[in-house]
Amino acid sequence: MKRKYISWLCGVAVILLLAACGIKTIAYQNGTYRGEIKDGVPDGYGVWTGRDQSRYSGFWVNGKRNGNGTFVWGNRTYRGGFKDGRFSGFGELTIGDSLAYSGQWLAGKRQGRGHVVDNHGCPVDGVWNADTLVSGVRKDSLGVYDGQLSLAGIPQGHGSYTATDGTYYEGHWIDGVRSVFGFSVSPTKHIRAGEWRNDRFLGERVVYTSDRIYGIDISKYQHVIGRRRYGIDWNSLRIVHLGTISKKRVNGHVDFPISFIYIKSTEGGTLRNPFYANDYVQARRHGLRVGSYHFFSHRSSAVEQARFFLKHSHFSKGDFPPVLDVEPTKKQIEQMGGVGNMFARIQSWLNIVEARTGCRPILYVGQSFVNKYLSAAPYIKNNYMIWIARYGEYKPDVKLVYWQLCPDGRVRGIRGEVDINVFNGYAPQFSEFCMGKTIR
């Protein structure tokens, strides 16, 4: 109603202006012009009506629309500046009763800053170039996007999104979803930096180079192959192959030093690794950072297993945190009384070992365990470092400390296949870990 009233007032003003200035009516550009004329062409204020019922009311200079005016064609209306007959300066374009664009124009095209509402009803304050929406700020019910946009006003290219719950993402977008590469920070999750596809985080695609920090984990199976027993040539240890079970990106030749080693000490409440004691001594003697791990069993209590591990393992100053290796089958979880009871046992073991060693243990699990069960133990997930076995090309999306990248690697000085691990960080982070997270 207000807009109609304003239009009526404008019409009255036009009539009064034309009456005051003296008007003429001429045939002009496939239509009829009524208004001020100079040298036989529109000049000043006037109204032009085309044969197709399009209509312009506004100012003219030398026969061309120049200055402010209103142009109506079909169900579209433009109100704003003109130069040499084309939209220029600030103007608003409406389609029916809806505002299609409000902002700057140049030579008939949107150019500069402007405002639109996209097909989803989301307001967009953007920057246009040659009628193309380049970038802008788009608001929806869940947050605000700031970055490159498609013609339709949806995220396309590089941009950032700040959600109302505090989650922040910056990176690449395709058709309105996170894709290719980016990073995300949220109040409930750690930083996730790496590759994305269709709004799903895949992980960091690791490139293996000599700058990475590598380690191995061993048990009796690096000594006993079939019926034969083998020693370890500790002076020759070098990683020479990263296995073939999964795809990997390697920069350069694989001949990496070993910076840390985990040795299996115990399993359940009765099994011991007969090679543990000697391997532990030799690893420390050869300057390796050493850690001990226990293989968790569903057959005995957490208390019994923790005491057994503590009794038969070494914990010297500078050793890496003790590790609980958890790899139960679905049936074994059922025999423990379900997922809740399993995590109660795990937490009990972790508490006992931490109290005794003064060092918070690390939890070793596989990717399937993370996917199926870890969300049922939010305290463990959020407060314990994870060592994960995942044989894919993307770094796992957990509170990662080590990543077991293959079970079929090769190490000079060790017979047979060896588990190869990579530390989640580089030399500076590894030094901080060695100073702050190890046994004191």
Structural write-up:
The structure is a single chain. This protein has 440 residues and is α+β, with helices and mostly antiparallel strands. The protein has 3 domains: 12-98, Histone H3 K4-specific methyltransferase SET7/9 N-terminal domain; 118-203, Histone H3 K4-specific methyltransferase SET7/9 N-terminal domain (Single Sheet), CATH 2.20.110; 207-436, TIM Barrel, CATH 3.20.20.80. It contains 8 helices and 31 strands. The protein has helices at residues 2-21, 276-285, 302-312, 330-335, 339-357, 367-372, 378-383, 427-436; strands spanning 24-27, 31-38, 41-50, 55-61, 64-73, 76-83, 86-95, 98-106, 109-117, 123-129, 132-140, 143-149, 155-163, 168-174, 177-185, 192-197, 200-203, 207-208, 214-218, 224-225, 228-229, 238-241, 249-250, 260-267, 271-272, 289-295, 323-325, 362-366, 386-389, 400-412, 418-423. The N and C termini lie far apart (79 Å). 32% of the residues are buried.
Protein topology:
Blueprint: H1 2-21, E1 24-27, E2 31-38, E3 41-50, E4 55-61, E5 64-73, E6 76-83, E7 86-95, E8 98-106, E9 109-117, E10 123-129, E11 132-140, E12 143-149, E13 155-163, E14 168-174, E15 177-185, E16 192-197, E17 200-203, E18 207-208, E19 214-218, E20 224-225, E21 228-229, E22 238-241, E23 249-250, E24 260-267, E25 271-272, H2 276-285, E26 289-295, H3 302-312, E27 323-325, H4 330-335, H5 339-357, E28 362-366, H6 367-372, H7 378-383, E29 386-389, E30 400-412, E31 418-423, H8 427-436
Helix pairs in contact: 3-5
